[in-house]
Amino acid sequence: MWKLLAWLLPAAFAATPGFAEPAPPISVQALFGNPAFSSPQLSPNGEQIALILSQGDKQAIVSRPLAGGALTPVASFGDPEVRIAWLAWANDDRLLVSGEFRLQRSVGVRARATRLYSVPSTGGEIRWLGRRWMGSDKFSSKERPQFEDRVIHSLPDDPLRVLILFQDPQKPFPRVMTVNVESGQLALRKEAERNIRVWAADTGGDVRAGWGTIDAGKTLYRVLARIDPTAAFEKVIEFDIDKQDGPWFVGFQRDAAKAYVSQS
Description:
- Helices cover 7% and strands 44% of the residues.
- By secondary structure, it is mainly β.
- A 4-stranded antiparallel β-sheet has the order 1-2-3-4, with no helix packed on it.
């Protein structure tokens, strides 16, 4: 019996998938190289798809009908130092694009900055929307917001505008602004409030919640919200991050009087 087991067991283990010949190692290029296509985005009407095409270090935006067909070149950045961070549809005819680049603030410190662009989905001029917001140098970290691409909502009833968090470099807390996706024109939607670093809009595009940390130690998390767009903001969540696990604000339900929260 023992002799039979000694012969059968190794044979059985060798026949199982776990003891098959090891697969060849995955190449570094496969793990860390740019995929040929990435970030597919479906247009609001469901008819077009836009993607980022990568070949080596070069990137371009392409589109095609969802039903199939040839790829249409849309746009690319002429400067190889500017990378495409993301793309999204502003409406059925125009794409929003985040351009990201390395920002050298001081010796030995590396940071990133973003600029917001738009381009017709059929191809054409890729337009920097922030050109007239303040300083004219898109790579400046002193005259301009570090991040221009913090879109928080695409307004369902206004396909020419989106909501963004706008952080003036000379002020500590962001405002909510509407941005015209063709001209870049800004308009104030919600003024900044002390200690509120992020704002959120409900499904209709109304700014209804904001949150941030309010103490010097940055551990007291507070959420302000309002029951309807005309009401005053009230504190709805507050807890010490070092002592509690939540709840954290996530977003609004379709019924905007209710919100989703998470807790670990």
